[in-house]
Amino acid sequence: MDLNRLETKIALAIAAIVSSARESAKLNCLNGVYNKIFVTDIIEEFHMTDFLQLRVLTLNCWGIPLPFPFGSADRKVRIKEIAKELATGKYDIVSLQEIWSENDFNMIHDAVRLVMPYSFYFHNGYAGSGVCVFSKGIILETLMHRYSLNGYVHHIHRGDWFGGKMVGLCRIQFSGININVYATHIHAEYNHDEDVYLAHRVVQAFELGQFMRNTMQNCEMAILMGDLNLRPTDLGYDLIRHSASLKDAWLERSDDYSPDGSCKQGLTCDLKDNCYTKASSSGKRIDYIFYWYEKRTLKVAVDKCFPTLCRIPNKPNLCYSDHSAVYASLNIARNGERIEESNNREIYEHLNNFANQLRYILPVVESGLQKVILLACIVHMDSGRGIALAGHHFTDNYISIFINFIDWILFLVWTGLSQFRRESVENDHIEHAYSIGTIFLL
Question: Domain Endonuclease/exonuclease/phosphatase, which positions (predicted)?
Fold first, then answer.
């Protein structure tokens, strides 16, 4: 056997043992049993080996909380099974899409909090963005960018505009490595031959790449996960990869291993063996894990990458979702000088001060909500009489149109303010781990 390969295998074996012990130490800490000497020894040993395996997963959960056929079939059962799988501790960072119900998010959060104690839900649109992140490593900061094109408002039957497609960033510190995790869900295609949303999806891909490129300066590694609704042959796929210098984990994998039931071609959607897919579908690869790393400080290699989580083991007639998940294990080694880490005490003090500022923000938002409600009441008062506006007298029909328009605008403002208030309250109760995500109002 080649000596270098033997040394690598030995180092990875040591890293696996250290990683296992390290996670045990974290769990003991969570349970109130904190052994300072043990944790210190493990951290020092890890820094000596400088090897780490990072396990990441992305899944579109198809969680529309409406009665079938308008909503997602078997949603409650499937979400519980997804939470059960994530609670096994197999994953270090997870990105989920189409978690439209906050109750579903909270249920998953409660189920996985012992193995992934840090999480964040990106509030956006009028049904929520559906995008959330769970992590074993601490989430230091979050940021959100809403795409400038989000489908058509009059395409109510699609719902993409109401959800508000976006990209969310979580800055995560995992075993001494600063990682930017980007979670997104790009506009659906719906019809490949007559794609009326092509321009929207290309713009979203462009903005995603630009957003990543301009926020990756202060990290050692970046990971993009999500349902991109783009095939590898699509223009948007190339835009994302090249604008942010990303690598596709599926293409970079060193091991062709695929578990039973996994598509060996890497396809993740419209699979024939998915119980929610038409039998005539041929399948496509639209869910991805991309990555980038700072070559001056790290070496990263993809050990395994494959689609997973199709059929539910104890419920063979059900699938976790209409998509398959994508899993990747990344082997990370130090390469040269370590980027100096920020002092944790300073970070925590900064976040504490920021949380205190939120208490001053909330009354302002509450005041804005009250004004919106008051304005809505004024508009509806005496609506049977004509309204003089810009020198014109409107009849009852025009009054109705005008009032409906005002109602719509007020609804948009009220929704945005409510989301900001809710997110502010959530961040006010976080234990040093979160910071507020940027909220964009229309």
Answer: 57-323
